[in-house]
Amino acid sequence: MPDVKRKRSKGAEKPRKKARSESGSDVEDDAQAQILSLETGILESKKHYNNINKLMELARNKEDGESSLVATVALTRVFLRLLAQGAMTKKTDQSEKEATVIQWLKDRLVDFEVVLTDALAEETTASTGLTLAMRVLKAEGQYRDNKEEYSFPEPFLKDIVRAIIYDGSEDLRQEFCEKYLGEYADVRYFAFKALNEVFGADENEQAVRESLFDNAFEVLSFFEEVPDTMEDMGEFYIEKAPKKHPVSILSQQRRLGQVAWLAALRLGPNREQRKKVLQIMTRSIAPWFTQPEFLADFLTDSYNAGGSISILALSGVFYLIQHRNLDYPSFYTKLYSLLDKDILHSKHRSRFLRLLVTFLSSTHLPAVLVASFIKRLARLSLHAPPAAIVAVVPLFYNLFMLHPSTTFMMHRVKATIEDTGFEDPFDANESDPMATGAIDSCIWEMVQLQGHYHPNVSTIAKILSEQFTKQSYNHEDFLDHSYGSFLEAEFSKQVRKPPVVEFMIPKRIFLPQDPASGVEDNLLTKIWDFA
Amino acid sequence: MAGSQLKRLKASLHKEGLIGPQKSKKDKKRDSKSGVKRMDKRAALEGIREQFNPFDLKHNVRGPKFEVTSNRPTNKAIHGRPVEAKTASEERRRQTLMVDEQRKNKVGGIVDRRFGENDPTLAPEERMLERFARETQSRHKKSSMFDLEDDEPGASFDLTHGGQTLSLDGPALVDDFQEDMEGLSDEDEDSEGRRAYLKRKALTEGEDIDVDDAQPDRKKTKQEIYSEIMAKSKAHKAARQEAKEEDEDIREELNKQLHSIRDLLFKTKDPRNNEPLDKAAEDAERVRLEKEYDLRVRQMLQDRRAQPTERTKTDEEQAADASERLQKLEEKRQKRMRGEQESESESESEKEEKEPPADFMEEDEEDEFGLGSGVAKKSKLLPTATDLGFDDEDDFFIEDDLVASGSELSLEEQDEDDEDESDQGGEDDDEFTKGLLAENEIKDPAFSASSSMGSKDDPAGVPYSFASCPETHQQLLDATKNVPIEKLPVVVVRIRTLFHAQLDSRNKAKLGNFTLALIHHLPYLASRRKLAPFSVFEQLIRHIHSLAKTYPIEVADGFRSHLEDVAKKRPLDPNLGDLIIYTAIGTIFPPSDHFHQVVTPAQLEIARFLGQKMPKQLSDLAKGVYLSIMILQYQQVSKRYMPELINFNLHILLALAPQSLKNVPFPVHELPDGLRVNNAQAAEIRKLSCYDCMESERSAKDQNIFKIAIIDSTIKVLDAAATLWAGKSSFLETFEPFKQLLVHLTSRPCRSHFPDALKDRIRKTQTRIEQMLKLAQIQRKPLELHHHRPLAIKSNMPKFEDTFDPSKHYDPDRERAEAAKLRAEFKNERKGAMRELRKDANFMAREKLRIKKAKDEAYEKKYKRLVAEIQGEEGRESNAYAREKEARKKAAKRNK
């Protein structure tokens, strides 16, 4: 009987505590001795049940933290013992008097639970309070009422969850997640349920809701991976639920995860919070959803929000399209509109490009549309950092390989049009990728970038004007670069070969040239003043 | 054939003439004379034997095959000799297997492995001879390189003193000494060579002291032969040397007599002196001398060494050479710009890169020194820089300074001239050259003492000499702490001359470190509150440049470490020193290269600043403008495009414009609004300066002036960029935003805040840009990038085998072919081995049976013999008994 053991060990702890406090002050010692005697009294006979009230008062008394804590612990022990003894279980053959006692005890237990949830809000007692509360929860679930029926003390858990979400510290939430939520399937199930109810009843103003959302996000995002099998769900905290009960059904668990997330999202997260949600959307949130359609609203809203939120929402939308067959009207138009002047400078650039590669990899896309994307990206790369250009060029190459009719953008021999004065038919302001006229245009931009200052970039850009002999380039090799990585690559190389030194030593660097020499001043001295 | 076997044999023997009627003596004689008879007889017998025993040979069972293409052409009718083969194998088994079998289960025994012991064909004498030969051979072969005994073949006979008695006053000692002396002449020969030398010498002297001669003549080993050859060549060399020395002596003697010869030569011109001499004798003497002189002259003319290897070049030729060299360098630069050198093989490119400058320098030096040095010494002309060991590039350097340094340095130069009354006097008006002349002094041993006394300062406080070459930046600071900043280049010149690499072997490394210290000094100078004059920076950079030609790797490393420092410590916040470093890199290294170890990271860093810096203050903008100019200057030749530059400068205009502009096609940072120009109509336009790159508090008026200056410079920069990238294919798209901005700046709400001069510039630039855009539009053509030759479908010529043999395997896969071959071989071998084993087993069974039979037979025989013996004895006994009985009967009868 593990429970008995635990109780014993708890009992064994007590003298130690006592011993420690003995070395402290006599007053405390007295108080604790009194608590102890009260406790033993309760356990000895039913006559001393009124001691519970005294202990309760002590426990409520927050001024004396130490003895309050001791009293709480003592009460926990008392209730655990009582529950284990069955002193709080109704039996058929009980007298009315006994029934009143049991009812009275139950009321006291409810009172005590309030004390415990209050303790959760206190910084100092939170951790102990959580442990005690969960233990009481366990005992309550195990010994209450008739044993045939599976029951979980939901109201108490709801109180605990409410306390944790509303008032708990970050550490407390962390502890709750690590020790209980992540470990036990039933705790998780009912905690999700409780979350839903907590948020559902919520009528707070925006600021509170935002902080609430933060807390809820913290708890919910604890699950990086969604359980896939029953084994992943974890053990049961109280006892194994019957097979038929929703707790032990995976889909029900997930449904409640979905419910909890929906409830949280209903709180109305602000921009930053949305970003956080979107970042973990495909990996940690969407898998909970048995009906991901519920996410569609949130995602399409985010997708339409513009800026980096759109980019982040893109992967979620894609998830829905991919897994739920979501029909997103004018998806590519929207995608095209995401290609704004900041996209290649954004820190989500590689994330976006990865998705873009996926979206454009279909061979069934109309060439006109693909050409628009190519031309737009080419325009953007005229102002892009080298890392972006490096990522974009292989994409072009692969697109040209996939859609041969777009290759006219690189090579257009037209006898009808006069040799020079070719007007670019591309309309940069057109928002519909099917109507930009890019397919009749050329990618002069890339030719210019073949003369890029960075040797690697120019070399990569040159693949577009060489013969297309490779089947495709692997995008991953080109995506994650930056100024830093380029510089590091340069500095990591040792100088072995003596570098070339300019053979002419210039006569003047900063100062103007001697007028007699007939050499023109350099640009620096023309524009800058070195007096 | 008819008749019995015997008859046929007789007939054939008869036919061959082996039997038959006896030949006459005459015939016999003739036959024996011709000598063919006996051989013929044997061959004939052999033939007959073969013919009469058809089962000795194996034939095709069904006669010869028909000729078809695929069967192997075999023209031998006989496939084997089964009987012979069988007997041979039997015999072999008897010798090996049988012996083994007999030795089985028996322990011990001695195997005689002496040569020829088991060979009955060898006669005992032959055997002994061969054994001796083998022994000597094995002894002769150096079995081990550490075998000391073998080193001296006659070791046991070798006496240290040649068998002579040891006595101190004997002649042996003298010999020893002499020998030693002789030994000295060929010091580094090994003892072997020396011995060979001695031997050869002895031979020439007719003596016979050779140690090797004690042994019978034998063939010389290769080593000996070679050492002999070497010794011979050395002797020849020594002889030549001796002859040369003799010549030398004679020449010296002649030189000594030259005075008298000259006296004699000039004597005729001075009649007073030769009065006492006899007229006739004098004439004769003169004729003789003249003759001799002519002879000498002719000889000297014919001497190959008198011929110039290269003739003196005219000025035009030299100019042509120089231009050709420049052209070559330019070509090489072009190649680097296109990034072609990387495509070449590594070694080749390295060779190319390394060699030409070195070659060039050497050539120059050789040729200059070949004709210049002597002249300079004699004629006391001013030594040029080349004479002093500088290469051509530095030549430019000094000449330029001769031209250009007049303005600010003339004062102290005059001072120096007054002070320093050296043999150059006032001719030399440049301090660079002066420093180099100081080097000349040091080269001359006469001056070395004076230079070492050191610590003499010129009036400006610049010491003439330094105790040690400053090798770290700290040392440089210490060395120059009392020197006014303007004099720093003078110090550098002096240090460079004092520690010129040609003066001491260690100076090369020292100067290398000094160069590094100079590189460190650049940002240090720029970090001071009061900036040093830029002429100093310029001179320092040029010094580093000229040093970089000697120490390219060190200089490159110095700059790279600085760049790395910038990248690590202040990636988006370069200081003035860093700007100077970027400038220095742009001039010292060729920024047009496709890839350059120093320029590429520098450009990346600048681009990073331009691309990622969020300008907060005006000084950031000023720095950006400076760096933009830097990039434009970098790309002056190669005209490479940098997106960040356009972005940044457009961004500046956008940030400073009095009104904001929406919908610009380039990324825009969040801008502090305080940067905008406001009511700056009165501000005059000035150029930006380095002080603008420092953060400082400015008054509102200064702020406005500063802002206007930035706008002005930015427009200039973008204008220059437009000019630089005018030919780019996407010029339209690149500069369209600039035009937009210019239009925006000329719009009423913006224009009203600008001074007139700026308005003017904006308008001018706008028209220029519009023209350029129009031109670009006219010139635009559709792209035609892919005029490649179409790729051929890969085709394979069928491979024809000239001498195809169907029985051979022509597997193109080498490995598989080899494996198949191995497998076949294995199969063959296995078959053979199985057959052999089976035969062995048969043989053994047969032998065993034979032995058993023999044993049984012997037993039977013995048994029979014994039975017979017993029976005989029995018979005899029974006979005796019968006889006895008879006798007894007879006796009884008798007795009866």
Automatic annotation (TrEMBL), chain A:
It comes from Apiospora kogelbergensis. Keywords: Membrane, Transmembrane, Transmembrane helix. GO terms for biological process: ribosome biogenesis. Coiled coil: none annotated. This is CBF-domain-containing protein. GO terms for cellular component: Noc4p-Nop14p complex; small-subunit processome. PANTHER family: NUCLEOLAR COMPLEX PROTEIN 4 (PTHR12455), NUCLEOLAR COMPLEX PROTEIN 4 HOMOLOG (PTHR12455:SF0). Residues 1-30 are annotated as: Disordered. Residues 1-19 have a biased composition (Basic residues). It holds the Pfam family CBF. InterPro entries: CCAAT-binding_factor, Noc4. The chain crosses the membrane at residues 352-374, 380-402. Residues 310-461 form the CCAAT-binding factor domain.
UniProtKB/TrEMBL annotation, chain B:
InterPro entries: Nop14. Its main location: nucleus. The keyword Hydrolase does not apply. Keywords: Nucleus, Ribosome biogenesis, rRNA processing. Residues 176-191, 205-214, 360-369, 410-431 have a biased composition (Acidic residues). It is found in: Nucleus, Nucleolus. It comes from the Eukaryota. Residues 1-42, 61-105, 133-392, 407-431, 870-896 are annotated as: Disordered. The keyword Transit peptide does not apply. Residues 29-42, 81-104, 215-225, 252-341, 873-889 have a biased composition (Basic and acidic residues). GO terms for cellular component: Noc4p-Nop14p complex; small-subunit processome. Transmembrane segments: none annotated. One of its GO terms (biological process) is maturation of SSU-rRNA. It holds the Pfam family Nop14. Belongs to the NOP14 family. Involved in nucleolar processing of pre-18S ribosomal RNA. Has a role in the nuclear export of 40S pre-ribosomal subunit to the cytoplasm. This is Nucleolar protein 14. It comes from Apiospora kogelbergensis.
